[in-house]
Write a structure and sequence with these properties.
Layout: E1 2-14, E2 17-23, E3 28-32, H1 39-51, E4 70-80, E5 87-94, E6 97-98, E7 101-102, E8 106-110, E9 113-115, H2 117-120, E10 126-129, H3 141-155, H4 157-181, H5 191-213, E11 224-229, H6 235-240, H7 242-248, E12 259-264, E13 267-268, H8 269-272, H9 275-297, E14 299-300, E15 302-306, H10 314-324, E16 329-333, H11 336-345, E17 350-353
Parallel strand pairs: 1-14, 3-16, 3-17, 10-15, 15-16
Antiparallel strand pairs: 1-2, 1-4, 4-5, 5-8, 6-7, 8-9, 11-12, 12-13
Amino acid sequence: MKMHFISGLWLQTFRNYSEKIFQFTNNITVLVGANGIGKTSILEALSVLSSGESFRASKIEEMIHFDAEYGRVQARFEIIDSDEDSITLEAMINAGSVLGKKTQKRVFSVNGVRRLRKDVIGKLLTVVFRPEDLRLVEGSKARRRGYLDGPLSLIDQQYAQALKDYEHLLRRRNKILEQIKERKTDESSLVYWDENLLKSGEYIQEKRAAYIDTFSQVSFPKEFTCTYQPSLLNAERLAQYQSRSIAAGHTLIGPHKDDFMIELEGRDVAAYGSRGQQRLAVLWLKMCERAFLLQTTQTLPVLLLDDIFSELDSDSQTLIFSLMSQGQTIITSADHGVADRINAHFDSIDVIELESE
């Protein structure tokens, strides 16, 4: 089994870091520091290099140091148990201009050679677990769709492109539906957009269904099950809903309406599960995500845990320890006691104390 291992991270004018280098020498690293000191920013930087996206910034500018025009993150990682050389990934982010010249907001490179974003995504595999994820089960449908899209986009360029195309086509189709409703155009204007919407949408739903099918292979103390609830998109249903979509002024069916349900002993965990059961279900989903990436790529991803130990009970913490027993894990915490508890379960860990610059 191959595994990704991050050996170094360089941040320049990224978030609250003017410049900082981190070295990782152990399978388990705990980053300890006060709230607001920049622990999450380290995991965010690694996630940007992995997925091309921030898991918390609504605008790229939010990731750039307050007195800088751009931010830069660079990570070096090895692929353990493979013949491949180490890889250096870099992302430079800006607000759209540097030194007065217009530029792309995100510029990526691999081993010093500039690459397209699509050619960088998934080179470094990570699974991120944050306190916000604990709302996954009982939270919004959009949050659950995001859970499905994350790992699929990471390893399937065609899926990532289909998702991007679908979102664009959906916006265009909705504008046309509004125009038809206002009698500014006729229904024949939908033909081109419908054909392409179907092509992208059907691929998205096919891959989402296949991903969820892999969940049954993951061993877990509780027997959770996951049922995909697609808003099925095909030519017949699109025609069936056309008059209603025109009346509403937007598309009523498709992947943008998809959902899934987690059950325990035949009961919907979101509706009837205890808070503890809901959190266990989220942990199960994260284990399913990691197992899916491993199964698909034959490579174990790096686990990024953002201050979640304070949110989990002892049983859940024990399950987290089992996840950490293989591969690399980078953990953040404001509590020094977390490092002590982790150290009691493993032979050796690294602890990095973060202080204000």
